[in-house]
Amino acid sequence: MVEWIISNGLIDYDMALRTMEARVAGIAAGTANEAIWLLEHPPLYTAGTSAKPTDLIDPHRFPVYEARRGGEYTYHGPGQRVVYVMLDVGKRGRDVRRFVQDLEHWVIATLDTFNVKGEIRDGRVGVWVERPEKLRQPDGTLAEDKIAAIGIRLRKWVSFHGLSINVDPDLSHFDGIVPCGISDHGVTSLVSLGLPVTMNDLDVALRQAFESTMGNVPTTA
Questions:
Q1: What is the C-alpha separation between 48 and 17, in angstroms, rounded?
Q2: pLDDT tens for residues 86-103?
């Protein structure tokens, strides 16, 4: 049974880490249910285990946290739905690559609710949307913007951290970093794509898409 938790207001990052770590310990011990935690943070940058110092362009703009998750620098802030995923990967096949792909497919299915075609790209973790109205890339391919970031950590085969989807954040806040180490593509949001989507709309879509993409747990434990 997966518990869904929705927090109102802006949640302090350190408090969120402590809360996640306590829940992960409980899941690993068999004393707590798996959980999906939906929240927003105040403006901040987080550095994953692969973050390059040169990708932190403006280190004084917002607080910077060492996240110890996979990935590089990312931004969290108001208008962005952060989805912390505390799931037993041990019961889900112990395949980390497949688990990350399942997260990507979950985001894609969620975006499809709003007729947004999310796509994945080799070598670029996260979910992207093509922008045919923008200038093409130098190699002639369509411009692409990132709409969702993914970065997880495992402890005793239980996941934490997770993903974020841009609903209506201040996109200029991404200017203080090279998001996820990728400088030749942009960042977008559902509202920037012309969709009047609310946070509640997204939460409903996330829950519905979860059941079809990640809800089935193999009975291997």
A1: 14
A2: 999 999 999 999 999 999
Contact 205, 108 (CB under 8 A): no
Backbone torsions φ then ψ of 26, nearest 5 degrees: -65, -40
Distance CA 189, CA 167 (A): 5
pLDDT in tens, 130-184: 999 888 888 888 889 999 999 999 999 999 999 999 999 999 999 999 886 677 6
Question: Percentage helix, strand, coil, to 5, in the chain?
Answer: 30, 30, 40
CA dist 107 → 4, 44, 162, 163 (Å): 16, 22, 11, 9
Dihedral angle sign, alpha carbons of residues 111, 112, 118, 120: positive
For residue 24, the SS3 value is: helix
Q: Are the C-beta atoms of 163 and 107 separated by less than 8 Å?
A: yes
The DSSP H or E segment spanning 177 is none
Angstrom distance (rounded) from CA 78 to CA 189? 12
Using CA atoms, how far residue 180 sits from 5, 94, 105, 193, 214, in Å, is 27, 25, 19, 21, 25
The predicted-structure confidence for 192-207, as pLDDT tens digits, reads as follows 999 999 999 999 999 9
The model's pTM is 0.93
Structural contact between residues 118 and 112, judged by C-beta atoms closer than 8 angstroms: yes
Instruction: Give the orientation angle of helix 96-112 with respect to helix 199-213, to 10 degrees.
Output: 130
Of 83, 79, 84, which is closest to residue 190 (Cα–Cα)? 79
CB 195 within 8 A of CB 147: no
Active site (catalytic) residues = 180
